[in-house]
Amino acid sequence: MHGNAQLIGIAIPILIAIVILAVRNSRPRRLRLEAMWMRPVIFLVLIGVTLASAPLPSEPLALLVLILALVLGVGLGWLRGSLMRIEVHPETHDISARASTAGMLFIVALLGLRMSFRNAAAGGGIAGLPTAALTDALILFAGAMMITQSVEMWLRATRLLGEAKQAKSVSGPPANPPIVS
Question: Global pTM?
Fold first, then answer.
């Protein structure tokens, strides 16, 4: 019976996350290029403050895990950002973004992985790593993923906006659909 309760305890938050993500991402949200720098800066400050509150582990295995978490966070952040659908209106140059279904499933999978990882780490660590090193790794992973996603989206939105402006100046008033990536 204890295993079923634990499974339900994992499944319910995942189902709630799926519903929230589906509702939130069902319509495009406006992107403001001039404000997109704020999210990475906020995450950098939060990560810095969090990690500075305690000394980083000095064991080689713990440092390797921190580096791996950072590299995975950057890679998966780039992937997640590239899964976002970005559109530029050809006349007004308004930019909007919408999460793809693949992107939503990716986040749900990460939530499930995090919950199972947290449950495994609750016993005092995994593979001889202290819990503090694991939590630092999760912070680095999440922060790197969010920062990299924002950077990838900003780069792509800037490129698409430039293409839309160039297309408008070359062809005059467009009858074209939005530029999408």
Answer: 0.74
Tell me: the pLDDT tens digits for 54-113? 888 888 888 998 999 999 999 999 998 998 889 998 888 899 988 777 766 776 676 666
Contact 79, 172 (CB under 8 A): no
- Residue 84 is encoded by which pair of tokens? 């976002």
Collapsing DSSP to helix, strand or coil, 176 comes out as coil
C-alpha to C-alpha distance for 44 and 161, rounded to whole angstroms:
27
Give pLDDT, residue 120: 60
Residues 38, 44, 49, 54: what is their CA dihedral angle, to the nearest 10 degrees? 170
Q: Where are the domains of the chain?
A: 2-180
- Contact predicate 30/95, CB 8 Å: yes
Q: Could you tell me the strand order of the sheet in which 84-88 lies?
A: 29-31, 95-99, 84-88, 179-180
Task: Spell out the residues 6+ positions from residue 168 whose beta carbon is closer than 8 angstroms to its own.
Answer: 90, 91, 93, 174
